[in-house]
Amino acid sequence: MATTVAFCAQHASAKAVFAHFIIGNSANMKAADWNDDIQKAKDAHIDGFALNIAPTDTYTDTSLRAAYDAANTVGGFSLFLSFDYLSQGPWDPSAVIEKINTYKNEASQYKYNKKPFVSTFEGVKNTGDWANIKSQTGCYFVPSWTSLGSSTVASDPNVDGAFAWDAWPVGANDKDDSNDKEWKSALGSKTYMMAVSPWFYTNIPNWGKNWLWRGDDLWYDRWQQVIEVQPEFVEIITWNDYGETHYIGPIRDGGIPDGSQHYVNGMDHDQWRTLLPFYIDAYKSGNTTTPTIDDEKLVFWYRLNPSKAGNNGGTTGNNPAQGQPIVDPAQASQDKVFVSALVTSPADVTVQIGNNAPTSLKATTAGVNHFSVPFNGQTGDSVTFSISRNGQQVLSAEGNGITNNCGDNGLVNWNAWVGGSS
Questions:
Q1: 366-381 per-position pLDDT tens digit
Q2: Residue 59, helix vs strand vs coil
Q3: Angle at which helices 218-229 and 178-187 pack, to 10 degrees?
Q4: Helices (H) then strands (E): counts for the chain
Q5: Rounded CA separation 328/19 (Å)
Q6: How many CA atoms lie within 13 A of 168 on its CB side?
Q7: 348 and 372 in contact (C-beta within 8 Å)?
Q8: Separation of alpha carbons 330 and 335, rounded Å
Q9: Element housing 132 (H / E)
């Protein structure tokens, strides 16, 4: 399969892209880590972090202070608070007011219509708290009350906009943008924040979590949908939620939840940021100008184990706790290599698993050309990629091998291995 888009690179000031940052995974971060994360996000053209905070973590204020200090130091990067009402229960309204008022005048606080921007992760049983919270803080409120549905959220007079936590498809399907268009229509003049995520797999027994949703082509597909839908805001899920495998930031010591180390360690996702400048600039410009491509690039991702190589660990495709029908995880997460090639002009792209015959693909236009190549039972010590033009190789890269060896625990690792040419 191959798809193509030419990206355009100019910024429109009204739009912004944020990455969801789990403060609960930040206890061991030092000032240098904060500065590094913010600079890496800024280099990827991300405008800021949505700081997810839960009500009972003892280090929340220390981490928030460090985050705002780092953003103020680095400059040109914004932060806002996202109150998590699920992981540790609901927030007391007075604590919400105190947190917003503590940070709303920071230089790096993101403001919209001159109001401090605030969001949530759920909190649907506490919607009545926000009239008073808004009156006491003057915030611009964009909650993620996705489970209430678009019309209910849109009709709430205390809501200025909405964030739909709807980034993954259900079952053995690809994600479309029909729900986003429904939310945007229902909201009318209110703002919409659209969710984008590259992957989802979690297996943390002590949290009762063990399911996956299809990632596959999602990182590419979803950005094309953002460019089409043109929401006011985009939120990437996530920067550092390692336990759910949709992290695009660096893996920080001490941030990996207990029980998830076996599928996170050694599985860096940094290269998922490589093409973000092109996607984000295309979104902000409305895809109306021609991008400048200084260097051709390859970004690729895939599972290191075929789906039937070992024990699936009891992982389900879909989350039955949400009323979704269980499907075989091997149907939801496909045995394929996914590759995006950024080229200056039409070119040939090859993918080779081990010593098997290479697969030849055509990048037909300047910009990002995306492909997927089935494993077809092939394994090997490495996966190699190349870009050629007029019979001359102009770029090559190598990724980790695909193997039936699932390690000491015998479990298929449903996380993505992500690599690239830079």
A1: 999 999 999 999 999 9
A2: coil
A3: 30
A4: 10, 21
A5: 30
A6: 25
A7: no
A8: 8
A9: helix 130-137
Task: Return the residue matching tokens 């890269």.
Answer: 397
Count the alpha carbons within 13 Å of 366 in the hemisphere toward its beta carbon. 11
Report the Cα–Cα distance between both ends of the chain, in Å, rounded: 24
**Rg of the chain on CA atoms, in Å:** 21
- Which amino acid makes up residue 419? G
Query: Closest Cα to residue 306, out of 379, 370, 232?
Result: 379
CB 88 within 8 A of CB 55: yes
Q: In this structure, what DSSP letter does residue 278 have?
A: H
Written as six digits, the tokens of 66 are: 């460090």
Averaged pLDDT, 345-364: 98
Residue 100 three-state SS: helix
Q: Which two tokens stand for residue 199?
A: 């992957």
**Average pLDDT over every residue of 87-101:** 97
Residue 1's pLDDT is 57
How is residue 348 written in tokens?
């040939």
pLDDT in tens, 335-353: 999 999 999 999 999 999 9
Q: Give residues with Cβ within 8 angstroms of 392, minimum separation 6.
A: none
At 105, the pLDDT band (50, 70, 90 cuts) reads very high
Give this prediction's pTM: 0.96
Cα 261 to chain centroid, rounded = 20
What one-character DSSP code corresponds to residue 183?
Answer: H
